Amino acid sequence: MAMWKTKEYRNVFAETGIGKEAVDNRLQEIIRFYFQGAEDERVYYPVGKDMAYIMDTGNLDVRTEGMSYGMMLCVQLDKKKEFDCLWKWAKTYMYMAEGENEGYFAWSCAVDGTKNAYGPAPDGEEFFAMALFFASHRWGDGEGIYAYEREARAILRACLHKGSGQRAGAPMWNLENHQILFVPGIDFTDPSYHLPHFYELFSQWADEEDRIFWSEAAVQSRRYLAKACHPVTGMSAEYAEFDGTPMQRKLGWSNDRHDWFYSDSYRTAANIGLDHAWFGVDEGQCAAVDRLQKFLIEDARKDNYHTYEVDGTIAKDDVLHPVAITATVAQSTLAAINPLSREWIEKFWNTPMRTGVRRYYDNCLYFFAFLALSGNYRIW
């Protein structure tokens, strides 16, 4: 039965025979590494007494992705001080109070708070909103920007209602097909942005007039993920069309490819796993993680992942975020029913967090996977 109803969270490590003390000790080491570690370990950086940021160490900037991830980790860990520090930095430097993107957050800033861009990335907004709702329920609401529930509702209101009435800009969701957009006003999506488990909760806690939309968004995202994941490999593209096919159109702002299984794409399987753990609803998307686990297992055994086309063809011999692949595929075990799942859990358990320049993305996904697999990624 889904954890949403039982409030009992599955501990996959325990199912694999790993003892509670070992899990607890590992979690404390992950927390130390992420928040207080050495310069080639941590990604959390305090600023004065009441602000902090999460650095994307590979790009030397601060992103709404990382800030909202950090806030979600903090609320799961009951780290209110660190949560408030991150939120104040985001509201001070990333929030846009005027212009076309008023109500959204600049997706990238320099570490001194200077905006690198004036556009948002919707995965940041949805994680900000969910973390704020959880904070409200776990700690209660404060004053000003710490009135968490009010702040969460305001974000979601912007996500759906910008561009209507007198409000400038564009929404972050396609209001007809209920799919999240890669950026406001664009006509394609990112499969890893689809978080039906969040939308189920938004349908309970967002503005009442929008709750039906969020409920339908959960349904449509699950169905979309079933289409977006390849029928043989289970892989999804970074960017995809509304029908799930990889998005191969040329973009005006980049010459990079985004139609392959790379970086963003790794999160899709992890999201399917957590959604199934929380709500237990399968619209065909869960079979994708079994396909993915089976397809990648030989490369995992050899510690030799690649950059892949979604059909599994090797596009490049190397891979930028190998730890992220192991972590997210392991987390997908929450929705898997194949016998390889135990091997993926053991692989993840024996994989250390990453050090060095590229640690940020890998270790954020590693942290989420560890919480999810130990029963510590919870609905608050």
CATH architecture of the largest domain: Alpha/alpha barrel
Count, helices = 14
Label the overall shape.
globular
Whole-number mean pLDDT = 97
CATH topology heading of the largest domain: Glycosyltransferase
Assembly type of the chains comes to single chain
Structural class: mainly alpha
Total E-strand runs: 6
Question: What's the CATH class label of the largest domain?
Answer: Mainly Alpha
The percentage helix is: 40-55%
What is the rounded distance between the termini? 18 Å
Spatial sequence of strands, sheet with the most strands: 1-2-3-4
List the secondary-structure elements in sequence, H or E: HHHEEEHHEHHHHHHEEHHH
The low-pLDDT segments are: none
Number of domains: 2
Q: Major sheet: size, sense and barrel closure?
A: 4 strands, antiparallel
Q: Kindly provide the radius of gyration, computed on alpha-carbon positions and rounded to a whole number of angstroms.
A: 19 Å
Q: Give the DSSP E fraction (strand runs of 2 or more residues).
A: 5-15%
Name the features.
5% strand; single chain; Glycosyltransferase; four-stranded antiparallel β-sheet; 14 helices; 2 domains; 380 residues; mainly alpha; two-stranded antiparallel ribbon; 6 strands
A few lines on this structure:
Helix content is 47%, strand content 5%. It is built from 14 helices and six strands.
